[in-house]
Amino acid sequence: MSSSLAQVGGRTFASVRKHRNYRLYFAGNLVSFTGTWMQQIAASWLVLRLTHSPVLVGALALCQLLPVTAMGLFVGTLIDRYDVRRLVIRAEILQMANAALLAALTIAGVVRVWEVFALAAFQGIVGAIDAPARHSLVFQMVGPEDLANAVSLSSSLGTMARVLGPAIGGAVVATAGEGTAFALNSLSFFAILASLWSMDVSKLHRPGKSEESNVLKGAVAALSYVRHTPRATVAFVVVFFLATFAFNFNVLFPLIADRTLHKGAGTFGVIAAVFGAGAFTGAMINAFRAVASVRTIILGAVGYGALELILAPLHSLIAICVLLFFIGVFYVLWGTNALTT
Questions:
Q1: How far is residue 128's CA from residue 139's CA, in Å, rounded to a whole number?
Q2: Which of 138, 152, 157, 339 has the fewest CB atoms below 10 angstroms from its CB?
Q3: Buried b vs exposed e over 237-256: b needs ≥16 C-beta within 10 Å?
Q4: Contact criterion met (CB below 8 Å) for 314 and 320
Q5: pLDDT higher than 60, residue 3
Q6: Cβ distance 319 to 271 under 8 Å?
Q7: CA–CA gap between residue 162 and residue 173 (Å, rounded)
Q8: Could you tell me how far CA 10 lies from the centroid of its own chain?
Q9: Which pLDDT tens digit goes with each residue over 123-160?
């Protein structure tokens, strides 16, 4: 029995066990991602408190995500020209400074809604470069053999942070205010920066530099590859439609807490944490399987969308939490498999 459990654990955490650089990254990102989700919770609640507008809560997410949409096709070709480890370090420093500025404005009591939106847009621009650079860095840390496992474990970092971040963030906002949550997020970046600075760069799997010097031509080449590769086509189409219409429904969590359940920041943190717990479960399933599957992408996408529809009319906290847990599972099943593919 203990031998079987050890084999399961060894398989699930293979990338952490085999690669020191990835162990450092895994630990640093757990702290940093938790801080990021604390800020997400606090920023949404701050906008709702300042404006009482559901539309502006959604607009905050748009400010963060529009740069990702606008830059997504071109960033891959762009980052191929640079040392991605150094690129990630610079992006993390910028995001740390961004969180510190938001914390200072909020704690001083002088923050304005337009400033929250401007800083969110800046975070989105930096994040549009940071996220694909981190994905590329994961490949460099573990190589092709352990890539599927490492991507699933990296997804588990974000989803574990979805549990810890909202739970901690909701408690911090309720007791100390949004500014304190922003300050804690700024401090959390020291963990990931320390891990990046401590890596053994000689052990990284360095890919060749992109031969395509034109960013636009690089984007066209990427789309051409997707069009001629059936597995990539399925992943691309699923991600496109779900990212457009369903992916970021978690921006509605503060409205579920405030308008549907008539509760405060604490309940907001609870429902976000439950969603994160489901996502973490899905990530562990993917990490154990360690193989990306088109069938799992489609299954996850269908389950994710169907459960969102069932969730829409509910007004019971227990029922909402149960559905959010399983929505989290399906969210990671399709997302992580699509990313690996």
A1: 18
A2: 339
A3: ebbeebbeeeeebbbbbbbb
A4: yes
A5: no
A6: no
A7: 16
A8: 25
A9: 999 998 998 898 889 889 988 878 878 877 887 677 66
SS3 assignment, position 212: coil
Look-up: residue for tokens 């969590």? 253
Q: How confident is the model at residue 214 (pLDDT cuts 50, 70, 90)?
A: low
- Distance in angstroms (rounded) separating the CA atoms of residues 164 and 236: 30
Reference 196, options 127, 119, 140, 123; nearest CA is 140
**CB atoms closer than 10 angstroms to residue 290:** 19
Cα→Cα distances 309→86, 169, 330, Å: 42, 27, 14
Burial of 171 (0-12, 13-18, 19+ CB in 10 A): middle
* Residues found in the chain: 341
Q: Answer whether 42's CB lies under 8 Å from 172's CB.
A: yes
> By the 8 A CB rule, do 257 and 271 touch?
yes
CB 282 within 8 A of CB 328: yes
Q: What are phi and psi of 252, to 5 degrees?
A: -85, -5
Q: Which helix (H) or strand (E) holds 341?
A: none
User: Dihedral, CA atoms, 81, 84, 86, 87, nearest 10 degrees?
Assistant: 80
Q: How far apart are CA 48 and CA 170, in angstroms?
A: 14
Residue with tokens 């847990």, as numbered in its chain: 325
b/e per residue, 293-307, with b = 16+ CB within 10 A? Answer: bbebbbebbebbbeb
314, two tokens: 């509910």
**pLDDT tens digits for range 287-305:** 776 666 788 888 988 999 8
As separate numbers, helices (DSSP H) first and strands (DSSP E) second, the chain gives: 14, 0
| Phi/psi of residue 13, nearest 5 degrees | -110, 35
pTM of the shown model: 0.77
Residue showing tokens 């549990």: 163
Handedness of CA 103, 107, 108, 111 (dihedral sign): positive
- CA angle, 6 as apex, 5 and 10 as ends, to 5°? 120
